[in-house]
Structure of Dolichol-phosphate mannosyltransferase:
Amino acid sequence: MSTSQPSVSIVVPVRNEADNIAPLIAEITAALDGRWAYEIIYVNDGSTDATGERLGAIMKQRSNLRQLRHARSGGQSAAVRSGVRAARGEIVATLDGDGQNNPAFLPDLIAAVEKGAGRVGLAAGQRVGRKDTGFKKFQSRVANGVRNAILKDGTRDTGCGLKAFRRDVFLMLPYFDGLHRFLPALVRREGYDIAYVDVIDRPRHSGVSNYGFFDRLWIGIMDLVGVWWLIRRKKPTPEVTEVNA
């Protein structure tokens, strides 16, 4: 498939997910082939296993598969940002590289942004039937509840990796570590609507989580305060027209 003019870019951040590479790519292609001109961008976030080699082998078979590599791990937000900056599509969709996010929901997310006709800046997956332990689900509920009470972003689950958004909207957001967990609040801050799509969670294909326990489950207090401050300080964006002579 040609990558000259993709309309959609799929960004997958991974670290040490060698055994999950081939199954997930097969599912992504099954979900998107024949629907959009698309590219798949894997951001290899400093993997020390065979992740890079597995991606290299599949790249020989699929011309729309790209690999970006971080020399050392920068974390999930940094990996997503690298992928979005390199993306060629006007719409970017993301999902985690461990297989818990089902690519079958990508078309619904992408279509929600398209149907928004410029008003929808983000389509956010909302997990149902989560496969995590009871303790992890409890922590997630607490974290989401605290975040929503302070930011009032109207989102019950910001931790789901399945998202689709306009590339230009993402790139206008302030970048910081943990950005991916505050996307709904920050996209609303820019005046765009959020679409929500229920997605079914499932167990990871293989291995264990490679983005740390606290990185996945705790909202940093400083980040939360910082985003609250950004929202409070936002002024209306002036309506701009060019005056011709």
